[in-house]
Amino acid sequence: MDSVTELEGGRALVVDGSWAGEPVRLINVYVPSDVGERLELFQHLRPQLVTSRTIMMGGDFNCILESGGRCGTRAGEGWMDDAAKLLAEMVGEASLTDVIGSMGPDARNFTWSRPDGSVRSRIDFGFTSKSVRIRQHSMVTVHFSDHRAIRFQGELTGKFLTGPCTWKLNSSLLGREDAQEDLRRTYSEWQGMKDTLQSIGEWWEWVKGRIQDFFKNVGRKAARGRRKEFIRLQQQLQELHELELRGWDVMNPLEAVKKELSEHFHEESWRIIFRSKVENLEKGEKCNFFFKKINSAHTPLVQLRNREGILCDTKEDIRKAVTDFYGDLYSEKRATRGVHQEQLYRGIPTPGYAKKEVKCMLYMDDVTLFCTDGKSVQSLLEACKDFGKASGAKINVDKSQAKLFGRWDLCNEPLPFPIEAGLVKILSIGFGGPGAAAKSWNECLPQVKQKLGFWSLRHLSIEEKALVLRNDALPVLQYVTQAWPLLANVAWAVNNMVFHFVWHSKMDRVKRTVMHKEHRKGGKAVPDIPTILRAFFLCGLQGLLLLPAPSMEKTGVG
C-alpha cells in the first residue's frame, strides 16, 4: 500500500497500492442523500479518477445511472439529477466498466428496495478499469442492511496498458503510403490466425493488440525520421549562417529554413499535449488550472485510530495501523476446521498406510465436499444450517450441485441441491461418467493448438521450437495427465500438431528418428510428448500404489 486519502469526512476513501505487481487504486464511497452534498462529493472525487493506475470503485452512490434504474411510487421515477449526470460523465471519462452491466428487462439488478417492494432502485455500483477482466458477478442479500451486496471476481490482465499512460492511435500515421502497404500485408497474415482461436471475438481482441504494436513501430519510425529531418535543418541553418558571415546573400533560404524549424517545433508541442491525455485543451490555452485542481484535491490523512482505539498522528503509526487492518482482513484463515473435526462426517479414504480421508477441496471460491454415506450427508446439511443461523447467510442452491457415484438411498432425506446426471468439473477436469476423459482431452487440445499457433508466427530454429514444446505446450497436457491417461486418438492429434509446428518450414528437414535424440547423440532434442505423458501418468500411479508405511514414532502408535 502506497497512500490512503480520505475525502469529505469519510464519505470517500482512496487507497493506492499494488496487487500482483500492478499499480491499483481502490475507491470506496458512501454518498450522502442530499443532492447538493452529493454533487460536491463527486466534484472532489473526479480528480481521483485521473490516474494511470487500475481503478476499482464501489459503494452506495445514492443515485441512478440509467432511466430504468428506479421504479415504484416515488416522484420523479427514473429521473437523473445533476449529480447522477456528473457521475455518468466521470465514469465515461475514466473509461470505467460497470461490473453488473445494464438493468436488463427484469428487476434482478435492483440493489435497494422498501420492505413492501413498492419502491426499488439501483443505487449501488461497482466500477473497474477495462484492464480488469470480470470473470463472474452476483448480488448477495445481507441481513444487516436493506441493500444488496455486489460481489464480483476478476483478474488484472494488463493487456492493453503500455507504460504509464493509455495508448491512442495517431491518425496522421494512416496517411503514410509505406504504413498502408505494410498494414495490408500484415493484416493478411493475421487473418490466418482465425482457425487457432475459438471465436471471431477472441481473434479480434488479439488483432487489436497487434494493431497497437504495429502503429507503435510505425510511430517510432516516423519519430526517427523527424529527428533526422531536425538534424538536417539544424546543419543547414548553421551552414547558411556561415555563408552569411562570409558575405553571401542567403536571406531567402535562411528564412525558409527558419520557417520549417518553427513548424517542426509547433508540431512537437502538440505531440506533447497529445501524450498528456488532456482532451479539452484548445490552442493557446494553458493548463495551469487543470494541474492546480488535481493537486488541491489531494487531502492528506493526518489521524487514524488503530485496532486498540488509540489515535495515531505520525506517518509511521498511521501506516502501521492501515497495514495491520488490511493484513488481518486479507490474511489466510482456516475455513475447513469444522469439517475435518466432525466425527460423523466421513470422506473418501486415501490409498496407502496413512489411513487418512479426503473430506473437502477448496480452490478460490469453489468448495468440493466428499461424502461416503447418508450420515455424512445429514451431518453436512446440519452444519450448513447451523452456519446459516449464526451468520445469516444461506447456501446458493441454484449454483450448487450434487453428483452421486454408486447406489444411494436418499428417499427419506432428499438433497436440497440439484443432482447432476452428467459430468462434473473439478478444477476444469471432467469426472463422473463415460466420456469424461475424452471430453477433458478435447478441451485441452485447442489450448495447445492456440499456443503453437502463436509461436508459429515467429521464425524459430528446431532447438527453439523444442524449447517452446517443452515449456509452453507440455505443461498444459501434463495437467490433464494427472487425472486421465493419454488416449490413442489424443496421442495421434498431439503428434500431428507437433509435426506441423516443427516441419512447416521447408528449410528444416531432419528425420523423426533423429529429431527425438539428445544433442550429444546427434539429435535435436525435440520432446516425444506422448511418451513423456504416459511415463508421467505411470509415475503418479506408482506413487499412489507404493506409498511408504508411516513411522511408528511420527504416528504415535505403540
From TrEMBL:
Q: InterPro entries under this entry?
A: Endo/exonu/phosph_ase_sf (IPR036691), Endo/exonuclease/phosphatase (IPR005135), RT_dom (IPR000477)
Top-level taxonomic group: Eukaryota
Endpoints of the signal sequence? none
Q: Which GO terms describe its molecular function?
A: catalytic activity
Instruction: Name all Endonuclease/exonuclease/phosphatase domain ranges.
Output: 26-147
Which residue ranges does the record assign to the Reverse transcriptase domain? 356-403
Q: What is this protein called?
A: Reverse transcriptase domain-containing protein
Q: Whose protein is this, by species?
A: Pleurodeles waltl (Iberian ribbed newt)
